Amino acid sequence: MSSYETLAGCYDALTEDVAYQRRADFIEKLMGRSRVAVRTVLDLACGTGTMTCLLSERGYEVIAVDGSGDMLAVAREKAVGLSGEPPLFLQQEMPKLDLYGTVEAAICCLDSLNYLTSPRDVQRTLQRLHLFIQPGGILIFDVNSPYKLRSLDGQVFLDETEDVYCVWRTEYEKRSKVCAYYMDIFRRCPDGRWERGFEEHRQRAYEVEELRAWLLEAGFSNIRTYGDCRMSAPRENEERIYFSAIRRK
Protein backbone atom coordinates (compact mmCIF):
# COMPACT_ATOMS: atom_id res chain seq x y z
CA MET A 1 0.00 0.00 0.00
CA SER A 2 1.07 3.59 -0.57
CA SER A 3 2.40 5.63 2.33
CA TYR A 4 -0.30 8.33 1.98
CA GLU A 5 2.35 10.86 2.95
CA THR A 6 0.83 13.57 0.75
CA LEU A 7 -2.79 12.43 0.76
CA ALA A 8 -3.18 12.04 4.54
CA GLY A 9 -3.32 15.77 5.20
CA CYS A 10 -6.08 16.41 2.67
CA TYR A 11 -7.91 13.06 2.58
CA ASP A 12 -10.88 14.27 4.65
CA ALA A 13 -11.28 17.40 2.55
CA LEU A 14 -11.37 15.33 -0.64
CA THR A 15 -13.85 12.77 0.74
CA GLU A 16 -16.50 15.07 2.20
CA ASP A 17 -19.07 13.43 -0.08
CA VAL A 18 -18.61 10.01 1.55
CA ALA A 19 -21.78 9.32 3.55
CA TYR A 20 -20.04 8.04 6.69
CA GLN A 21 -23.10 8.31 8.94
CA ARG A 22 -25.17 6.29 6.47
CA ARG A 23 -22.42 3.67 6.20
CA ALA A 24 -22.11 3.49 9.98
CA ASP A 25 -25.88 2.91 10.19
CA PHE A 26 -25.60 0.10 7.65
CA ILE A 27 -22.66 -1.50 9.45
CA GLU A 28 -24.62 -1.45 12.71
CA LYS A 29 -27.49 -3.25 10.99
CA LEU A 30 -25.10 -5.92 9.74
CA MET A 31 -23.51 -6.26 13.17
CA GLY A 32 -26.94 -7.29 14.37
CA ARG A 33 -26.29 -10.58 12.52
CA SER A 34 -23.50 -11.42 14.96
CA ARG A 35 -24.21 -14.39 17.18
CA VAL A 36 -22.60 -12.61 20.12
CA ALA A 37 -23.27 -9.16 21.57
CA VAL A 38 -20.95 -6.67 19.87
CA ARG A 39 -19.04 -4.43 22.21
CA THR A 40 -15.50 -4.32 20.80
CA VAL A 41 -14.98 -3.59 17.10
CA LEU A 42 -11.82 -3.80 15.01
CA ASP A 43 -11.66 -1.10 12.34
CA LEU A 44 -9.07 -2.54 9.94
CA ALA A 45 -7.45 -0.07 7.53
CA CYS A 46 -9.08 2.76 9.47
CA GLY A 47 -7.45 5.55 7.47
CA THR A 48 -8.03 8.95 9.06
CA GLY A 49 -10.39 7.41 11.58
CA THR A 50 -13.77 8.86 10.65
CA MET A 51 -15.58 5.52 11.01
CA THR A 52 -13.54 4.77 14.12
CA CYS A 53 -14.77 7.95 15.76
CA LEU A 54 -18.38 7.42 14.71
CA LEU A 55 -18.46 3.94 16.21
CA SER A 56 -16.70 5.14 19.35
CA GLU A 57 -19.33 7.86 19.79
CA ARG A 58 -22.03 5.19 19.41
CA GLY A 59 -20.67 3.36 22.44
CA TYR A 60 -18.36 0.72 20.95
CA GLU A 61 -14.82 0.06 22.09
CA VAL A 62 -12.79 0.39 18.91
CA ILE A 63 -9.37 -0.91 17.95
CA ALA A 64 -8.24 1.00 14.86
CA VAL A 65 -5.46 -0.43 12.69
CA ASP A 66 -3.77 1.08 9.64
CA GLY A 67 -0.50 0.61 7.80
CA SER A 68 0.11 4.34 7.29
CA GLY A 69 1.60 6.34 10.13
CA ASP A 70 0.54 9.54 8.37
CA MET A 71 -3.11 8.49 8.25
CA LEU A 72 -3.01 7.32 11.87
CA ALA A 73 -1.60 10.67 12.99
CA VAL A 74 -4.69 12.38 11.56
CA ALA A 75 -6.95 9.74 13.12
CA ARG A 76 -5.42 10.15 16.58
CA GLU A 77 -5.87 13.92 16.42
CA LYS A 78 -9.48 13.49 15.29
CA ALA A 79 -10.21 11.18 18.23
CA VAL A 80 -9.04 13.67 20.87
CA GLY A 81 -11.97 14.64 23.09
CA LEU A 82 -14.30 11.83 22.06
CA SER A 83 -16.78 10.83 24.72
CA GLY A 84 -16.59 7.27 25.97
CA GLU A 85 -13.73 4.81 25.69
CA PRO A 86 -10.94 6.29 23.52
CA PRO A 87 -10.00 4.17 20.48
CA LEU A 88 -6.78 2.17 20.51
CA PHE A 89 -4.67 2.93 17.42
CA LEU A 90 -2.15 0.44 16.05
CA GLN A 91 0.12 0.70 13.00
CA GLN A 92 0.10 -2.68 11.26
CA GLU A 93 -0.22 -4.02 7.73
CA MET A 94 -3.40 -5.98 7.11
CA PRO A 95 -1.80 -9.40 6.42
CA LYS A 96 0.25 -9.05 9.62
CA LEU A 97 -2.63 -8.14 11.93
CA ASP A 98 -1.73 -8.94 15.55
CA LEU A 99 -4.07 -8.03 18.41
CA TYR A 100 -3.85 -8.62 22.15
CA GLY A 101 -7.19 -10.42 22.31
CA THR A 102 -10.39 -11.02 20.38
CA VAL A 103 -13.18 -8.72 19.19
CA GLU A 104 -16.84 -9.43 18.56
CA ALA A 105 -16.84 -7.66 15.19
CA ALA A 106 -14.32 -6.53 12.59
CA ILE A 107 -14.93 -4.09 9.77
CA CYS A 108 -12.82 -3.09 6.78
CA CYS A 109 -14.39 -0.15 4.99
CA LEU A 110 -14.21 1.75 1.72
CA ASP A 111 -12.60 -0.88 -0.52
CA SER A 112 -9.47 -1.23 1.62
CA LEU A 113 -9.09 -4.92 0.74
CA ASN A 114 -8.75 -3.95 -2.93
CA TYR A 115 -5.44 -2.29 -2.03
CA LEU A 116 -4.02 -5.75 -1.36
CA THR A 117 -2.97 -6.55 -4.93
CA SER A 118 -1.68 -10.02 -4.01
CA PRO A 119 -4.44 -12.64 -3.62
CA ARG A 120 -2.23 -14.39 -1.07
CA ASP A 121 -2.21 -11.23 1.07
CA VAL A 122 -6.02 -11.17 1.02
CA GLN A 123 -6.07 -14.80 2.14
CA ARG A 124 -3.56 -14.08 4.92
CA THR A 125 -5.64 -11.10 6.06
CA LEU A 126 -8.80 -13.18 6.27
CA GLN A 127 -6.91 -15.84 8.22
CA ARG A 128 -5.61 -13.24 10.68
CA LEU A 129 -9.10 -11.80 11.06
CA HIS A 130 -10.47 -15.25 11.83
CA LEU A 131 -7.85 -15.61 14.55
CA PHE A 132 -8.89 -12.40 16.32
CA ILE A 133 -12.67 -12.47 15.89
CA GLN A 134 -14.50 -14.23 18.70
CA PRO A 135 -16.35 -17.43 17.68
CA GLY A 136 -19.81 -16.36 16.56
CA GLY A 137 -18.56 -12.83 15.88
CA ILE A 138 -18.92 -11.07 12.55
CA LEU A 139 -16.66 -9.75 9.80
CA ILE A 140 -17.97 -6.94 7.58
CA PHE A 141 -16.12 -5.45 4.61
CA ASP A 142 -16.79 -3.89 1.24
CA VAL A 143 -14.91 -3.96 -2.06
CA ASN A 144 -14.92 -2.08 -5.31
CA SER A 145 -16.42 -4.54 -7.77
CA PRO A 146 -14.54 -5.79 -10.84
CA TYR A 147 -17.12 -3.94 -12.93
CA LYS A 148 -16.23 -0.64 -11.28
CA LEU A 149 -12.47 -1.05 -11.55
CA ARG A 150 -12.70 -2.10 -15.19
CA SER A 151 -14.90 0.90 -15.98
CA LEU A 152 -12.33 3.29 -14.48
CA ASP A 153 -9.77 2.53 -17.20
CA GLY A 154 -8.60 5.69 -18.91
CA GLN A 155 -10.68 8.03 -16.75
CA VAL A 156 -9.49 11.41 -15.47
CA PHE A 157 -10.98 12.98 -12.32
CA LEU A 158 -10.69 16.32 -10.59
CA ASP A 159 -11.34 16.99 -6.91
CA GLU A 160 -10.85 20.43 -5.45
CA THR A 161 -11.46 22.53 -2.38
CA GLU A 162 -10.31 26.03 -1.54
CA ASP A 163 -6.92 24.72 -0.39
CA VAL A 164 -6.52 21.40 -2.24
CA TYR A 165 -6.50 20.57 -5.95
CA CYS A 166 -6.24 16.91 -6.95
CA VAL A 167 -6.09 15.52 -10.48
CA TRP A 168 -6.03 11.77 -10.86
CA ARG A 169 -6.12 9.41 -13.78
CA THR A 170 -6.63 5.68 -13.86
CA GLU A 171 -5.37 2.71 -15.85
CA TYR A 172 -6.77 -0.83 -15.62
CA GLU A 173 -4.58 -3.75 -16.65
CA LYS A 174 -6.73 -6.69 -17.69
CA ARG A 175 -4.15 -9.40 -17.17
CA SER A 176 -3.26 -8.43 -13.59
CA LYS A 177 -6.76 -7.12 -12.78
CA VAL A 178 -5.05 -4.10 -11.20
CA CYS A 179 -6.28 -0.53 -11.47
CA ALA A 180 -3.60 2.13 -10.93
CA TYR A 181 -4.49 5.61 -9.68
CA TYR A 182 -1.97 8.35 -10.53
CA MET A 183 -2.63 11.36 -8.31
CA ASP A 184 -1.18 14.88 -8.58
CA ILE A 185 -2.05 16.75 -5.39
CA PHE A 186 -1.61 20.50 -4.97
CA ARG A 187 -1.95 21.98 -1.46
CA ARG A 188 -2.03 25.64 -0.52
CA CYS A 189 0.64 26.48 2.06
CA PRO A 190 0.03 28.98 4.91
CA ASP A 191 2.07 31.61 3.03
CA GLY A 192 -0.11 31.25 -0.07
CA ARG A 193 2.26 29.13 -2.12
CA TRP A 194 1.07 25.88 -3.68
CA GLU A 195 2.96 22.68 -2.94
CA ARG A 196 2.77 19.74 -5.35
CA GLY A 197 2.86 16.08 -4.39
CA PHE A 198 2.38 12.84 -6.30
CA GLU A 199 1.08 9.45 -5.20
CA GLU A 200 0.34 6.20 -6.97
CA HIS A 201 -2.26 3.84 -5.55
CA ARG A 202 -3.18 0.42 -6.86
CA GLN A 203 -6.29 -1.73 -6.40
CA ARG A 204 -6.94 -5.27 -7.58
CA ALA A 205 -10.33 -6.57 -8.69
CA TYR A 206 -11.63 -9.61 -6.82
CA GLU A 207 -14.61 -11.68 -7.85
CA VAL A 208 -17.35 -12.42 -5.32
CA GLU A 209 -16.81 -16.16 -5.83
CA GLU A 210 -13.11 -16.09 -4.95
CA LEU A 211 -13.64 -13.92 -1.87
CA ARG A 212 -16.40 -16.27 -0.74
CA ALA A 213 -14.06 -19.26 -1.21
CA TRP A 214 -11.27 -17.61 0.78
CA LEU A 215 -13.68 -16.73 3.59
CA LEU A 216 -14.76 -20.37 3.80
CA GLU A 217 -11.14 -21.54 3.78
CA ALA A 218 -10.29 -19.10 6.57
CA GLY A 219 -13.06 -20.50 8.78
CA PHE A 220 -16.05 -18.22 8.16
CA SER A 221 -19.62 -19.26 7.39
CA ASN A 222 -23.02 -17.67 6.73
CA ILE A 223 -21.43 -15.50 4.06
CA ARG A 224 -23.78 -12.92 2.58
CA THR A 225 -23.32 -10.17 0.00
CA TYR A 226 -25.19 -6.89 -0.27
CA GLY A 227 -25.48 -3.91 -2.56
CA ASP A 228 -24.04 -0.57 -1.52
CA CYS A 229 -25.67 0.13 1.88
CA ARG A 230 -28.70 -2.01 0.98
CA MET A 231 -29.97 -5.06 2.82
CA SER A 232 -30.44 -6.84 -0.50
CA ALA A 233 -28.24 -8.74 -2.94
CA PRO A 234 -25.90 -6.80 -5.25
CA ARG A 235 -27.43 -5.76 -8.54
CA GLU A 236 -25.87 -6.40 -11.92
CA ASN A 237 -22.98 -3.97 -12.42
CA GLU A 238 -22.98 -3.02 -8.72
CA GLU A 239 -19.97 -0.78 -8.04
CA ARG A 240 -19.53 -1.51 -4.32
CA ILE A 241 -20.31 -4.85 -2.72
CA TYR A 242 -20.59 -5.50 1.01
CA PHE A 243 -19.80 -8.84 2.63
CA SER A 244 -20.72 -10.19 6.04
CA ALA A 245 -19.50 -13.50 7.45
CA ILE A 246 -19.69 -15.26 10.80
CA ARG A 247 -16.60 -16.71 12.45
CA ARG A 248 -17.25 -20.41 12.90
CA LYS A 249 -16.97 -21.85 16.39
Account of the protein in words:
The chain has 249 residues and is α/β, with parallel strands linked by helices. 27% of the residues lie in helices and 34% in strands. The chain is built from seven helices and eleven strands. The chain has helices at 11-14, 20-31, 50-57, 69-79, 119-132, 146-151, 208-218; strands at 40-44, 61-66, 88-91, 103-108, 133-144, 156-160, 164-173, 178-188, 194-204, 220-226, 240-247. It has a seven-stranded mixed sheet with strand order 3-2-1-4-5-11-10, sandwiched between helices. A four-stranded antiparallel sheet has the order 6-7-8-9. Helix 5 packs across helix 7. 35% of the residues are buried.
Write the layout of secondary structure elements.
Layout (H helix, E strand, L loop, with lengths): L10 H4 L5 H12 L8 E5 L5 H8 L3 E6 L2 H11 L8 E4 L11 E6 L10 H14 E12 L1 H6 L4 E5 L3 E10 L4 E11 L5 E11 L3 H11 L1 E7 L13 E8 L2
Parallel strand pairs: 1-2, 1-4, 2-3, 4-5
Antiparallel strand pairs: 5-11, 6-7, 7-8, 8-9, 10-11
Helix pairs in contact: 5-7
Structural class: alpha/beta
Shape assignment: globular
- Give the averaged pLDDT, no decimals: 94
Q: With helices defined by DSSP (H or I, 4 residues minimum), what is the helix count?
A: 7
User: What Rg do the Cα atoms give?
Assistant: 18 Å
Largest sheet strand order: 3-2-1-4-5-11-10
Uncertain spans: none
Summarize the helix and strand pattern as letters.
HHEHEHEEHEHEEEEHEE
What is the total tally of β strands? 11
Major pleated sheet: 7 strands, mixed
Helicity range: 25-40%
What fraction strand?
A: 25-35%
Distance between the termini: 32 Å
